[in-house]
């Protein structure tokens, strides 16, 4: 309904201009708002803010958001490969965008001012297929009240979480659907090695209460005490803490996985001009300041300010993430993960 | 009805099939203008199917129907000219009596006043002048059926079709309404076809009766013809009651039944043919023995008092083990002192005897 | 000579081709339109879905390979077992509870019957997810009554059973009440006069009398639970069920082929249950048509009071479920800040589409009720009262009954396959409000259709003949007589469609787009993202909307009953 009003308002505005200026038809088509279908995994509460900031500069381009968890948006994009519905992806894991690039689904474009970004945040190709926005970082949400109630020590490392004392107290996202879940798994495999990583997950699996569909749910559940420990990401933890949840956000000592949220244009879009305008906006300093509201590390150097409730020492804890490796091995890792863990309820194997 | 009367509805070689089942087998029939015809027969005989074919509600598989000189064989009901009344009345429950009657008129875009006048006339016709504002559910069954009749007549159709119109009513209302419908039909002179399974209804109302059985017309005739000279054993059995005794044609105009020989008209049969002899109980006589033809000795096996007369069950060698029923007047039983076990001579008047081919099985 | 005779005979034998009148043309055109609608909205999508299950990702035919893959994956196969065992357990529990509750309402002189009748309907007003959400607040790790579970977790079979039992209760109750109300009182008199004991009477008269009702309720409940995905999604934890598997395969991994395979697997028991139910219903009708004397219960203090106690417990459970959802929605931050606030109603900052989703839902429900009622009722009218097209009409009737056997998720998935195909000329409705409305109408077509048919069957079959003889086109009689007389049924169909459109998740979860998010889907997505309290808040918004419509429906129906009293009752 709101949209309807907005549309009519816009149209009547356009009508006024055209009466003032030239012919009716010409102006009507020229002034018509463009609808951009934008796929995203950005937290729902930020979407309106992002769109508003963009529309301040480009009032004629209307963003139609399709939001879901990282894994789902990725899968959706892949499934629609032959019949893409998205024009732009704004805010999806870089590993996923790399995958799309490998599938030949991205449109290379060097947005205005791309040279100002930290090189780490830009695709190495020229022109780049994707540009980064911010880093989102794994962390563990620990509910101090529930921890005390169950007599749980505060974990300081990933390995700590395999301690049998945490049995049934840990919740983590399913990497098949959640980008956070995937960056956790990929970071463990990078840190502990292929074999050590799976061994670690076998042990962790024993303590897992359940796997969630979305990456923010474990932290939200930790915040509300449904679980004492939720493996999630720092942004979510900080948000919940701000709401007054008795949370401690822990950066495990071995190092933390992370991924970039990044932006790309989908090849074959019929609205390339508008898509380029959007991507241009996503790398501006202004946009980066906006990302910094929730994310401690952003692509535009010198913008990042300390984020309230964020744990200290994030930059130091971030592992040297091999994105290309993660992207190329993504499918294999997920299939293996699913066959090993995706049925907590299976009767014990004979 | 004289044969020169103008034929209004002409049915030729009508066949109606429902899948493998043949409901009407080669029916041909003429209905004259202004005539009241009854289709009579047991349920499943095809009489309603024939009516619905005439109405165009279930169009025949083969054959032709002509109404008022116009071939209507393929026309949908709305393009034919008839009014219809159903057993269930089929009154529109949410419309008042007036609106029900006016239903067909309203669609003709007649002026309001004209409609009102016509509805008033029709209400008068069925003597429901003061019930116009009521809803059907507030009327008795008989009143509802009169409304249905008025509705059917509202558009002055050339043909009135009545599908078991009285079957849902109480016995007394039924008898009363019979007279009323017949009266109305006579006054309006509308050609009318009524379907009924009630022989009394047919006998009292119809100018001509069409007796149907298994999709075939067995006999067409005035009530007197149908009753007095049933063309087939089915008609004989279906209308009124009839005694059937097996026998043989002995010689011309003489048949043998059990140990007796009876005089009767044997036209259509040859000597030695097996036959069924039929006579109505009321035609069996226990007096006037001065005519000495066809007198047999009988014994009263059973006697049932039916109010205005007695029904006697007769035994005796004459009927070779078949029981024969006869109606005796109360007066006669009293006078002759007839009782169970009484033996007496009875007469089977030859002009009342009908012969049919023997029953199968 | 012989030739002429033969020619004459041939002419006579020629089959009469009835002239098709204007009425017939109109009728047939509408019938064709409805037939095409059902073909496009029911049969073709289902066909596409089934063919997908025997294709690989590229669309090549691979026979049953997907199925053998499915059945060789223990995790997936296990879901089938889980779905079966949960459905059977819950069905048994719900049948027992429902029977006692219905018995109390029909066969005793328990006080406050009206109250218990009203309370029993409450779960119909909410999405099935609401039960699951409430259970988290009652029995979750921070649950108020967590201790009652004796250390067991609510996430898993216990939660699914409880949550399912909550929302299917009214569905079962309506059937059992009907079955119990039709038993013939004379049988009890006979049993009494034979001096049979109360227990014996119960087992020889009461149970056989409502046997078919119980069987029917059992199958309906079984199918509902077997195909529901709301409850296991919310409180299933890691306990996988078939319905959640489809969701995971399709939404989680966009593995449409596997989703189609699971759909076919899900379709099998649903179709079996559906067929058994149809057979049983026919027998039930036979029982009904006997001229029965209605049973009037006599007071019996002990029985009435114990029934009151039982029904009170059930009513308290239902009120507790919905009450907790409302309470949790108002609490600022469970369990650490129990102050009331409207923070959880700030849907716009949550996943799922925000307040727009709520308005979308109302819009969708209104469209569904409006267009659904028109399509269903005119369809039923033509199938029941139309002329010509005899075979076509009975085929249409069969197709109209099909959707009942198709679980919502299967339908939704079938729609993706069919409408999202780029070559489909109807591709443009994909991702619009239209596809949501069409899917919802089809999903709830059968019950609406049967309601319409029942009402139409009570109409005199000769109305159409009479109006034809009076040369009034059928549509005038339809508008002036049929619709007014069937108005209560028409309203029943609209409210049924409205309530279901508001609360359904399963079919639409695959079909909504970013600007057509729905309230019920928002409940699901908010819960998915961990925003359980806002999910409860949205679920309650749905409940209030449905309750308001329900009340409006009752008022309207009563108003009509009063207005039409003159002609409705003798």
Task: Write up this protein.
The complex is a heterotrimer of chains A (350), B (361) and C (570). Chain A has 350 residues and is of the alpha/beta class. Helices cover 43% and strands 18% of the residues of chain A. The N and C termini of chain A lie far apart (57 Å). Chain B is of the alpha+beta class. In chain C, strands 1-2 form a two-stranded antiparallel ribbon. Chain C is globular. Chain C has 570 residues and is mainly alpha-helical. Chains A and C meet through helix 3, strand 2, helix 4, strand 7 and helix 8 of A and helix 4, helix 12 and helix 15 of C.
Fold blueprint:
The complex is a heterotrimer of chains A (350), B (361) and C (570).
Chain A: H1 2-20, H2 24-31, E1 34-40, H3 44-57, E2 61-67, H4 70-79, E3 88-93, H5 94-102, E4 106-107, E5 131-143, H6 144-149, E6 170-173, H7 179-207, E7 208-212, H8 217-223, E8 229-233, H9 234-242, E9 247-250, E10 258-266, H10 272-282, H11 285-291, E11 297-298, H12 314-317, H13 323-341
Helix pairs in contact in A: 1-2, 5-13, 7-13
Chain B: E1 7-18, E2 21-32, E3 36-40, H1 47-55, E4 62-67, E5 70-71, E6 83-86, H2 97-106, H3 112-125, H4 141-154, E7 159-163, H5 171-188, E8 191-196, H6 199-205, E9 208-213, E10 216-221, H7 223-228, H8 233-238, E11 243-251, E12 254-257, E13 260-263, E14 274-279, E15 295-305, E16 309-315, E17 324-329, H9 330-336, E18 343-347, E19 354-356
Parallel strand pairs in B: 3-8, 3-9, 6-7, 7-8
Antiparallel strand pairs in B: 1-2, 1-4, 4-5, 9-10, 11-12, 11-14, 12-13, 14-19, 15-16, 15-18, 16-17
Chain C: H1 2-13, H2 22-52, H3 65-72, H4 74-107, H5 113-121, H6 129-139, H7 157-181, H8 185-193, H9 198-209, H10 211-227, H11 230-235, H12 242-252, H13 256-289, H14 301-330, E1 331-333, E2 337-340, H15 354-385, H16 390-401, H17 408-419, H18 433-443, H19 445-457, H20 463-469, H21 474-485, H22 487-503, H23 519-528, H24 532-563, H25 565-568
Antiparallel strand pairs in C: 1-2
